[in-house]
């Protein structure tokens, strides 16, 4: 009995060991879950690539197709990159698509009427900055909600695009300008280099500059940022200006790629850009907007569209699947975030 | 902060003034209704489309020349709004309603209400089949448009082959054209290897570009289709750009509407070989003449559905346009 009977201390040893094991396992599973959470979207992206690669290896994985995918997502990548900046400061911009349309309309109308290409491009970029400044002023200084402010701006900007184009398709643009959207450099489409350039600038500013850190601070907690001496209003204002500028640049690339401009050609990019940023937020451990994640989001949307086109899947099914994947990615991220916290 | 408050005040005042000005305009328009001048309310859901804008503007010009008072409303594809706008016009007791390029199914609520109020409803290209609720609908002959454009691809490839279709199912006219083209291709030894429906007409050109680009990537060289048939010119232009970008040989494109950018593309002797110009002057002219007769003696046309053929534009005659 004496040998067989366990003392409370003896009993505690295996309990402690089990507890340690449980804790070890739970730490492992928590870190695995964390890894899955932060890497799940990237994993999903890789799975998409693998699935289409297996289904159509000779086509999907060819260099030519990869080049096509990059070309097709370049404009979305530019708009999504600047949308990321706005979402880092805790807002969002519904007017990015309309701004791209308006800038494209302005550059085309000016060139069709004989303006110098550089002058037309500068004017279109200035229009983007102006729209961004109006958004920034409304949100940062007049304290309008980003939804209301940018929805209103989107409506007005869209109307301005109709006024500029007079509702028609503008075409007959100079060859020099078409190089921006249709040209090749080192075998790759020029829009890809523009998108990479914009993404690198956004990444650098967000990660390595005071401006980027202040944007993050404002997005994290604007009260704390304010108490730390950050000019919150100015930070919000600049983020919207960046979004306006980037959107107008995307509008220029789009107009050049299509060799024409209409009042609505850039509009569909607004929702896609927000979807890309949301997908990208699931890549971040903190669930915040980040440029690397956004590019993964852009990649998912682009690969999905390209792959399903190659498979000959109906447009309607494509649309359904795209929505489904966005919901699945964001919901998974939310669920795993709840569990880990 | 004070400046911001002042700015906000000024913005509010400006918005208020603009709103009141807008309301004032409506009031003034109603006041101008003397009873002798016909009041015509035009409704469209897609003024942003080049062909629609062309037709609606053409109608407005001709109607204004006749001395009618014309108001044009665009609902931007919002048919709930369009029906409400029509009901507002009925309340204003307009003398006639014109539906421009609208869907008869989606606009039926407003149109039926107009008929109940004994207001005639004239229509420009607003339905592919006869409908008793219209006093007159003059439309393009969608069967002829589709036949002539598909024929351009068939003639370029008398031995048949493969063809891609790009349509827009939400548009009744384009849906009807797609059905006709599909049947014609099947009868002439063509296999329809893809039938893409445009999701966003606002970005039809880019969507068609991307779709054809992806298709040609998956089917390069000898596997490429012989032709791409598009239900309207913007999609045809996108397909043309994809073919040129891919460097695909002997793939021809045909579409319809006769938009000026499509005609310019045909003149280049590239892949874009044909479009069919919709005869808007004749279509609009018939509607205006019929309305004029109604305003003069109150008589309505005997036939309420008229189809007008289009004019094929190919490399041979493109320079004339």
How do the strands line up in the largest sheet of chain B? 2-1-3-4-5-11
Largest interface: chains, residues each: A-B, 37 and 36 residues
Strand content of chain B: 15-25%
- Helix proportion range of chain B: 40-55%
What is the tally of helical segments of chain A?
14
Low-confidence stretches of chain A: 1-14
CATH topology group of the largest domain in chain B: Rossmann fold
Note the run of SSEs of chain B as H and E.
HEHEHEHEEHEHEHEHEHEHEE
User: Main β-sheet of chain A, in a few words?
Assistant: 2 strands, antiparallel
Shape of chain A: globular
Distance between the termini of chain B: 60 Å
Radius of gyration of chain B: 23 Å
Structural class of chain A: mainly alpha
Strand content of chain A: under 5%
Task: Give a short overview.
Chain B: Keywords: Signal. Chain A has 341 residues and is mainly alpha-helical.
Question: What does this protein look like?
Answer:
The complex is a heterodimer of chains A (341) and B (321). Chain A has one domain (59-297). Chain A has 14 helices and four strands. Chain A is mainly α. Chain B has 321 residues and is an alpha/beta fold. In chain B, β6, α6 (172-187) and β7 (190-197) form a beta-alpha-beta unit. Chain B starts with a helix and ends in a 7-residue tail after the last strand. Residues 11-34 of chain B have low confidence and may be disordered. At the A-B interface, α3, α11, α13 and α14 of A face α1, β7, α7, α8 and α9 of B.
């Amino acid at each position: 009995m004496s040998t067989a009977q366990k003392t409370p201390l003896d009993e505690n040893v295996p309990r402690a060991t089990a507890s340690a094991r449980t804790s070890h396992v739970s730490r492992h599973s928590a870190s695995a879950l964390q890894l899955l959470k932060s890497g799940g979207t990237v994993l999903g992206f890789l799975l998409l690539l693998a699935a289409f690669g297996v289904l159509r290896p000779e086509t999907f994985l060819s260099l030519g197709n990869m080049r096509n995918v990059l070309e097709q997502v370049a404009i979305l990548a530019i708009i999504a990159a600047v949308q990321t900046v706005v979402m880092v400061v805790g807002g969002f911009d519904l007017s990015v698509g309309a701004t791209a349309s308006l800038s494209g309309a302005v550059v085309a109308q000016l060139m069709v009427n004989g303006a110098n290409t550089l002058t037309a491009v500068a004017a279109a970029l200035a229009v983007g900055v102006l729209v961004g400044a109006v958004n920034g002023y409304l949100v940062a200084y007049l304290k309008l909600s980003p939804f209301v402010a940018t929805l209103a701006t989107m409506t007005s900007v869209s109307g301005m695009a109709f006024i500029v184009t007079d509702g028609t398709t503008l075409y007959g643009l100079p060859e020099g300008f078409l190089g921006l959207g249709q040209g090749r450099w080192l075998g790759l489409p020029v829009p890809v280099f523009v998108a990479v350039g914009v993404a690198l600038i956004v990444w650098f500013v967000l990660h390595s500059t005071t401006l980027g850190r202040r944007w993050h601070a404002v997005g994290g907690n604007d009260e704390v940022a304010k108490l730390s001496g950050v000019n919150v209003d100015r930070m919000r204002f600049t983020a919207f200006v960046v979004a306006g500028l980037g959107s107008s640049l995307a509008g220029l690339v789009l107009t050049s790629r299509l060799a024409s401009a209409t009042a609505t050609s850039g509009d569909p990019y607004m929702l896609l850009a927000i979807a890309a940023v949301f997908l990208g937020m699931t890549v971040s451990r903190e669930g915040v907007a980040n440029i690397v994640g956004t590019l993964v989001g852009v990649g998912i949307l682009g690969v999905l569209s390209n792959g399903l086109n190659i498979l000959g899947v109906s447009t309607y099914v494509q649309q359904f699947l795209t929505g489904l994947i966005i919901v699945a990615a964001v919901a998974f991220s939310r669920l795993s975030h709840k569990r880990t916290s | 902060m004070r400046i911001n408050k002042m700015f906000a005040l000024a913005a509010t005042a400006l918005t208020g003034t603009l709103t009141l000005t807008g309301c004032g305009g409506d009031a003034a328009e109603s006041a101008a209704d003397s009873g002798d001048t016909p009041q015509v309310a035009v409704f469209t859901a897609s003024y942003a489309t080049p062909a629609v804008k062309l037709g609606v503007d053409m109608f407005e010009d001709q109607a204004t020349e006749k001395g009618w008072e014309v108001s044009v409303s665009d609902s931007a594809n919002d048919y709930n709004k369009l029906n409400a706008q029509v009901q507002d016009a009925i309340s204003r007791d307009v003398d006639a309603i014109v539906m421009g390029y609208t869907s008869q199914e989606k606009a039926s609520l407003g149109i039926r209400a107009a008929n109940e109020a004994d207001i005639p409803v004239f229509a420009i290209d607003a339905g592919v089949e006869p409908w008793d609720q219209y006093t007159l609908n003059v439309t393009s002959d969608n069967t002829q448009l589709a036949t002539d454009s598909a024929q351009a691809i068939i003639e370029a490839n008398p031995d048949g082959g493969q063809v891609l279709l790009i349509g827009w199912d939400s548009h009744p006219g384009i849906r009807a054209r797609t059905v006709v083209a599909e049947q014609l291709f099947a009868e002439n030894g063509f296999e329809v290897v893809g039938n893409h429906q445009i999701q966003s007409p606002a970005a039809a050109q880019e969507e068609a570009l991307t779709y054809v680009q992806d298709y040609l990537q998956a089917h390069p060289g000898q596997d490429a289709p012989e032709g791409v048939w598009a239900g309207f010119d913007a999609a045809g232009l996108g397909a043309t750009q994809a073919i040129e970008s891919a460097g695909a040989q002997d793939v021809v494109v045909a579409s319809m509407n006769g938009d000026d950018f499509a005609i310019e593309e045909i003149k280049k002797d590239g892949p874009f070989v044909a479009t069919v110009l919709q005869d808007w002057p004749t279509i609009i002219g018939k509607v205006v003449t019929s309305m004029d007769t109604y305003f003069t003696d109150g008589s309505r046309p005997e036939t309420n559905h008229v189809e007008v053929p289009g004019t094929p534009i190919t490399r041979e005659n493109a320079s004339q346009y």
